[in-house]
Design brief:
alpha/beta, 41% helix, 18 helices, six-stranded parallel β-sheet, 15 strands
Length: 474
């Protein structure tokens, strides 16, 4: 049994190698300067291996886990959740699927599990590795590690010297998901990310075991993302579809090409409409943190009598977070928003304006009735990376003097709200803020082999069929 599992995973890795499972670090590191230019105290493959061993033993199951039944009488959907943002996007869909009688089995990272209230933990299983996963991981490391190290070194030594442990994660997650998916035998698997190593291992194992796969978009997408490799992709709208069509070649040469059905189902986070009378400004920072800009925005908000709601990115480095807390935590006119404790809907509901660089929070702000203001100071990123300014749903500040003029009402911000439907297909339709229900209804019908639209209303392009919201018979 054990040797068979190792052999099966090795076969999968021959088709989809570690550098494709750990996609961002393996294929696109040059396009993510904040990762490529990250300063680390210790480099070298030996130190990275020690980090990997630490990760394995830290996440080793130390007590008997909740029993997971296999082959139940009801239809089962297995869900993997790797972050709080993914949870927020998937939550309403999972609730609706349960209402329709599906058995939902959720595996989530321990950090996500810890954010749940006790009453919410019933369907959730924190992801800890078993002893068999540990042995399988180390066996795969022995069998595959040297070859992986040599391949990484030929391309960009940065990948092996700084990130080798991240590539090794694939051995552990492939082992975990192989064990559980082959045991549960679900009708479908569902996740909300397609480029992180954990999610990609989840999808890869499900595909290998001939289990139907579904991906629900949880944030803005990029031309640097991998090609879709799922049966059903629930994308926000036309904008995401067009980007993924351009990603068709971002796949390993040996991987079999999947026939993908794309559905335009709107952005999935339920957003509360903001009160335009609010006298609060939001500032959302990311990896390219600029303390000088933060201080300048703070001074402007203070001058005009606004409160500043400062929010960092969910993946922000802990050293940056501590720096922000030290500097702004005690200021009366600053309210800190921790994404691990406050969801984006609650944050946006208190704002009138939002200042941010390249981030999907611009779209979420516009959908919530907040005025998004684009301001990017980093030289490492492309201007208007997601195209929100070009499409007219975010206003380009250019400089902070423009922000002064907006607060002083010398400049009137006009946005093209019609463009919102290009990004979120459900905008101003009966399905707005019911996207979870829409996806659940589609999944129910798909899992039962039902039809959702007439063949004449479906578009076909490059091994992909595209189903717009208007053509769905729901």
């Amino acid at each position: 049994m054990f040797l068979g599992k190792v052999k099966e995973i090795s076969t999968l890795l021959n088709e989809e190698p570690e550098e494709w499972l750990c996609y961002i670090y393996g294929q696109q590191i040059e396009n993510y300067p904040h990762l490529a230019n990250r300063k680390v105290k210790r480099r070298g493959v030996l130190f990275r291996l020690l980090r990997y061993f630490y990760f394995l033993f830290k996440n080793l199951e130390t007590k008997s886990s909740r029993e997971i039944n296999s082959n139940p009488s009801t239809m089962v959907i297995v869900v993997y959740i790797g972050s709080l943002n993914q949870l927020i996007s998937l939550k309403s869909t999972m609730q609706e699927l349960k209402r329709f009688g599906f058995d939902i089995r959720v595996f989530c990272e321990p950090k996500v599990f810890r954010t749940l209230r006790p009453s919410e933990r019933v369907d959730f299983n924190p992801l800890y590795f078993s002893i068999s996963d540990l042995i399988c991981s180390l066996t795969l490391l022995v069998l595959k590690g040297w070859s992986l190290y040599r391949r990484l070194g030929k391309g960009n030594r940065l990948r092996s010297e700084m990130f080798f442990d991240r590539f090794c994660l694939s051995y552990s997650y492939l082992s975990f998901f192989y064990r559980n998916i082959s045991y549960i035998r679900p009708s479908c698997v569902l996740t909300a990310n397609d480029h992180n190593v954990q999610n990609r291992c989840f999808i890869a194992i499900a595909n290998y075991l001939d289990c139907r796969t579904a991906y629900l978009q949880h944030a803005s997408v990029s031309k640097f993302f991998p090609a879709l490799s799922v049966d059903w992709a629930f994308l926000d709208g036309k904008a995401s579809e067009e980007i993924y069509v351009k990603c068709q070649t971002n796949r390993p040469d040996r991987a079999s090409r999947k026939f993908v059905s794309i559905f335009h189902t709107g952005q999935k986070k339920i957003l509360t409409t903001s009160d335009r009378g609010n006298t609060s400004i939001g500032l959302a920072v990311n990896a390219f943190i600029d303390l000088e800009t933060i201080e300048s925005v703070y001074n402007l908000t203070l001058f005009f009598g606004y409160k500043l709601h400062l929010r960092w990115h969910p993946t922000q480095e802990s050293v940056d977070i501590e720096q922000l807390k030290r500097k702004y935590g005690s200021r009366d006119s600053v309210i800190l928003s921790d994404p691990s404790k406050e969801d984006v809907a609650s944050y946006l509901s208190r704002l009138r304006y939002l200042v941010a660089g390249n981030s999907s929070i611009h779209l979420e702000a516009a959908l919530a009735g907040v005025v998004p203001l684009y301001f990017e100071t980093s030289d490492f990123v492309s201007w208007d990376y997601y195209g929100y300014v070009k499409k007219g749903i975010s206003f380009d500040l250019q400089n902070l003097e423009t922000l002064r003029d907006i607060l002083n009402e010398k400049v009137k911000v006009e946005l093209s709200l019609e463009s919102l439907r290009y990004y979120s297909a459900t905008y101003q339709t009966v399905w707005q803020n019911r996207e979870g229900e829409l996806v659940a209804k589609l999944l129910v019908r798909l899992c039962h082999g039902g039809s959702f639209t007439s063949a004449s209303e479906v578009q076909y392009q490059n091994n992909t069929r595209i189903i717009s919201l208007e053509s769905m018979d729901i």
